Amino acid sequence: MARIESIHLRMVDLAPKVERTDAIQSFVSQETPLVTITDSDGAVGQGYSYTIGTGGSSVMRLLSDHLCPRLLGREAEEVEAIWNDLEFATHATTVGAITSIALAAIDTALWDLRCRRAGLPLWQLAGGAKPQAPCYTTEGGWLHLPQSALIEDALQARAQGFKGSKVKIGKPSAAEDSARLGALRDAVGPEYEIMTDANQGFLRDGARRRALALAEHDLAWIEEPLAADDIAGHAELARVAPMPVAVGESLYSIRHFAEYVSRGAASIIQVDVGRIGGITPWLKVAHMAECHGLAVAPHFLMELHVSLVCAIRNGAWVEYIPQLDDIVGERLRIENGQAIAPETPGIGIDWDMAEIDRRAVAEFTTQIGRDT
């Protein structure tokens, strides 16, 4: 056992690799808080989380002013106790995105430290169910793209071994969405999976009509058809939708997921480490889903989620959206459409710390503890 002696905070801003638009927004920036924890034996853990363009400064202030000082002197191996204590210390601001994003950056750093000290990769220490998992791509399915571009990207992905593509929906009419998906299905054939994502863009009547209109295209799922907190609406839709309903990227508590699961409001669970508060609660949601026979296909963060999908029995998919390429050395390995879980000790991300330091926003670069 070793006590936490210092925490180094940084934040970098990463621009998307391609233009990303969906039914409600454009993704123009990824603010990326990074937490480096060092213990009394000199072992180091690196964690992170993200925003999609707003809130990064608030996350960094919560980390520097309230959460990270509470880590000093704690036993680094007591990850569960630390997570619970930090959540309680911020109970006035939970459940909420800013707090969960901040907790995630700390928790992933503690898991990285734990794995490194154990000499094991995350996918093994967290369960070790399988060494690889299938990928689908979202990078060519954005809402602004013409139908021809959707088809071209999916065909290229299929040729590279990918098992599916996600297409954003939310065009002005169901007929337009259906035409795009129909042309895509004709191009890729029946074996290739097509996922759809509404990004909370519909009201209940529109979601029902859209789901029924798209039934003929044999969709893998319809994702976030309604506002994320409309559990009753999702439960109602799940009873009539011909395709599975997927939710999770906009949920910030294991209790939110428990309500969805208990009410049969989703059959694909898309729990996101960066938004649920870290690896500790992510694993709880994933195991809860397994107990109810539900698949887990996490949102975004492919570099981290590959290890967690491979850790659990019901891990179904890794979502291909490259976002860390500019601040890592070795990238996620994908072979014939399978994402390979990293074998190196830790959470499996090869951080380029020199590049991170070069990009770090000075205002939010903070040392807490030793060497302050």
TrEMBL record:
One GO-annotated biological process of the protein: carbohydrate catabolic process
CDD domains registered for this protein in UniProt: MR_like
UniProt name for this protein: Mandelate racemase
PANTHER family: ENOLASE SUPERFAMILY, MANDELATE RACEMASE (PTHR13794), MITOCHONDRIAL ENOLASE SUPERFAMILY MEMBER 1 (PTHR13794:SF58)
Superkingdom classification of source: Bacteria
Molecular-function annotations in GO: hydro-lyase activity; magnesium ion binding
Keyword Zinc listed: no
Keyword annotations: Magnesium, Metal-binding
Limits of the Mandelate racemase/muconate lactonizing enzyme C-terminal domain: 147-244
Signal sequence interval, chain numbering: none
Keyword Endoplasmic reticulum: no
Cofactors: Mg(2+)
InterPro entries assigned: Enolase-like_C_sf (IPR036849), Enolase-like_N (IPR029017), Enolase_C-like (IPR029065), Mandel_Rmase/mucon_lact_enz_CS (IPR018110), Mandelate_racemase_C (IPR013342), Mandelate_racemase_N_dom (IPR013341), RHMD-like (IPR046945)
